[in-house]
Amino acid sequence: EDQVTQSPEALRLQEGESSSLNCSYTVSGLRGLFWYRQDPGKGPEFLFTLYSAGEEKEKERLKATLTKKESFLHITAPKPEDSATYLCAVPGQNFVFGPGTRLSVLP
Amino acid sequence: NAGVTQTPKFQVLKTGQSMTLQCAQDMNHNSMYWYRQDPGMGLRLIYYSASEGTTDKGEVPNGYNVSRLNKREFSLRLESAAPSQTSVYFCASIGTGSWSPLHFGNGTRLTVT
């Protein structure tokens, strides 16, 4: 059974303080990984698809990386508008989602 | 540029009442999904429809029924609501292609008292 975990559960950063979020997965065969951002009261919004181990994707202050067992979402010099819950998911017959990391960036 | 639209946004039910959550997408996607999201548990799949005319159970189907009305619309029905069904419900759709991401609506927040 595919399983996805995320850490930390919550993270508070000062504006400009870089950090990383982790997504670990146990799957029968790596089929790529998706990252989403979710704002309060909204549905998840697609950020990145990572297709294979070693791949990296960037968007503004976010950079996602993928290994054979985990993915990291690096946030460089975050701003308050980056505050959100970040979800990762592995695809298959059905998507399996992690529980998310709730990020707060304080001004 | 609506994407996935869900109605209603909020609903309060009493135990035993029934209701239908509506979902429509305008992206010509074949597959549609219903998830529930609870604190600390992530998104869990209730039902999905791989194409018009087909539906299948997901991880947590008990207490729910679905109807794929046409290619655009996929509804979720609670026949006899229970407090355990208090949750936020999300509808999603996905295009064809191995690496297509899910596109989500903005959810229905349901409280069952």
Shape of chain B: globular
Helical region count of chain A? Answer: 0
What is the molecular shape of chain A? globular
Strand content of chain B: over 45%
**Helix run count of chain B:** 0
Low-confidence stretches of chain A: none
**N→C terminal distance of chain A:** 41 Å
Low-pLDDT residue intervals, each spanning 5 or more residues of chain B: none
Q: Please provide the ordered H/E string of secondary-structure elements of chain B.
A: EEEEEEEEEEE
The largest interface is: A-B, 22 and 20 residues
What is the number of E strands of chain B?
A: 11
Task: Report on this structure.
Chain A is mainly beta and 107 residues long. In chain A, 0% of the residues lie in helices and 56% in strands. Chain A has strands spanning 3-7, 10-14, 19-26, 33-38, 45-50, 56-59, 62-66, 70-75, 84-90, 96-97, 101-106. The model of chain A has no long low-confidence stretch (mean pLDDT 93). Chain B has strands at residues 4-7, 10-13, 19-25, 31-38, 42-49, 56-57, 64-68, 74-78, 87-94, 102-104, 108-112. Chain B is globular, with a radius of gyration of 13 Å. Chain B is an all-beta fold and 113 residues long. In chain B, the strands form 2 sheets. In chain B, strands 2, 4, 5, 6, 9, 10 and 11 form a 7-stranded mixed sheet that branches. Chain B has a 4-stranded antiparallel sheet with strand order 1-3-8-7, with no helix packed on it.
Keywords:
heterodimer; A: 107 residues; mainly beta; six-stranded mixed beta sheet; five-stranded antiparallel beta sheet; B: 113 residues; seven-stranded mixed beta sheet; four-stranded antiparallel beta sheet; 52% strand; globular
Concise synopsis of the structure shown:
Helices cover 0% and strands 56% of the residues of chain A. Chain A has 107 residues and is mainly beta.
Chart the SSEs and their pairings:
The complex is a heterodimer of chains A (107) and B (113).
Chain A: E1 3-7, E2 10-14, E3 19-26, E4 33-38, E5 45-50, E6 56-59, E7 62-66, E8 70-75, E9 84-90, E10 96-97, E11 101-106
Chain B: E1 4-7, E2 10-13, E3 19-25, E4 31-38, E5 42-49, E6 56-57, E7 64-68, E8 74-78, E9 87-94, E10 102-104, E11 108-112
